[in-house]
Specification:
8 strands, 13% strand, 11 helices, eight-stranded parallel β-barrel, TIM Barrel, alpha/beta
Length: 316
């Protein structure tokens, strides 16, 4: 049973940590092969669940140490039909992986029930295509149907809400939110942006949020930005602008490189964890409504620790 679906604690106040770059951590720091960048495939490997659990525990310990709440994000970023087909998984297998991914997070939440005040479980949804490129854009209707099964599986699980990560275009965001509305599932949309602060499809972030809100009877509970460095989007978030109040979370990359540069890189650029923490603090001072703090590509527990430390005294 979901604990918080009816009233998510991150909407009531306080700050919440989440994890960093799961896939880049596993590949570059742990030497683990992830076909198609799909972390959910570890669930079918001997010892794979234990690897994932230990990964999340590093972050849960940071939240417990600094007194933050925590968002446990499932490993479902690649768990949609097109990617599963490339990986040789049937719809039934994909459904089972989705259920297992949430069960793992519920077990972790239970372990930390006495040490972290609120541990919230999110079912992660990734883009149909590449997270860096807006190609073959679906209509909202097609996107709703395409992502609907994964949303339904999360709705039937104890997950508290869904988070669609690295969304590159407006119609796909609208479709996911409509699918969540149909299942009465709270939804968060996390857009990615290029170095100019615009979505890969070319729209301004302000436009993407406004159009998604208008197109959905039940809009996202908030928006996030992920898979981009703070220098890519900070100038696109004017302090005091009404629309920026809809942004509730950040999961930035460690590197200031563009998506194209990162895609061509053979080595991981971890940037400077302490500098990233200070950039988060500066963003929170201008946008205190941001409550969820984590990382994306190239970040690991060192970055999230620095973020937690730098933002510990920011009101919110």
């Amino acid at each position: 049973m979901s604990l918080f679906r009816a009233c998510l604690p991150q909407q009531r106040g306080g700050r919440y940590l989440t994890d960093g770059g799961l896939e880049t951590t596993l590949i570059f720091h742990r030497g683990i092969e992830l076909p198609q960048f799909a972390s959910y495939t570890l669930l079918e490997k001997p010892g794979g669940r234990e690897i994932l659990e230990q990964y999340f525990i590093e972050y849960l310990e940071i939240a417990a140490e600094f007194g933050y709440g925590f968002i446990l994000e499932s490993v479902g970023w690649r768990a949609n039909p097109d990617w599963a087909k490339k990986l040789g998984h049937s719809p039934a297998q994909l459904a089972e992986f989705t259920r297992q991914s949430i069960d793992m997070l519920i077990d972790l939440r239970d372990r930390y029930a006495g040490r972290i005040e609120s541990v919230v479980v999110s079912g992660c949804i990734g883009p149909r295509g590449d997270g860096y490129v807006a190609s073959d854009i679906m209509t909202p209707e097609v996107a709703e149907k395409y992502h609907g099964e994964q949303v339904r599986l999360y709705a039937e699980s104890p997950a508290d809400f869904i988070t669609a990560m690295t969304i590159t275009n407006i119609p796909e965001a609208i479709g996911i939110v409509r699918a969540a509305e149909k299942e009465k599932m709270p939804a968060v949309i996390s857009f990615t942006v290029e170095t100019d602060g615009k979505l890969p499809s070319g729209e301004e972030l302000e436009q993407a949020i406004a159009e998604t809100d208008r197109a959905c009877a039940t809009p996202p509970i908030y928006y996030m930005i992920n898979c981009a460095h703070p220098t890519h989007f900070e100038k696109s978030l004017p302090a005091g602008a009404e629309w920026t109040s809809r942004i509730g979370g950040l999961r930035a990359n460690a590197s200031s490189k563009s998506h194209a540069e990162l895609n061509d890189s053979t080595e991981l650029d971890i940037g400077k964890p302490s500098a990233l923490g200070l950039q988060y603090r500066d963003l929170l001072l201008r946008h205190p409504q941001i409550r969820v703090l984590g990382g994306c590509c190239g970040t690991d527990s060192r970055h999230v620790r620095e973020i937690a430390l730098a933002c510990a005294t920011c009101s919110g």
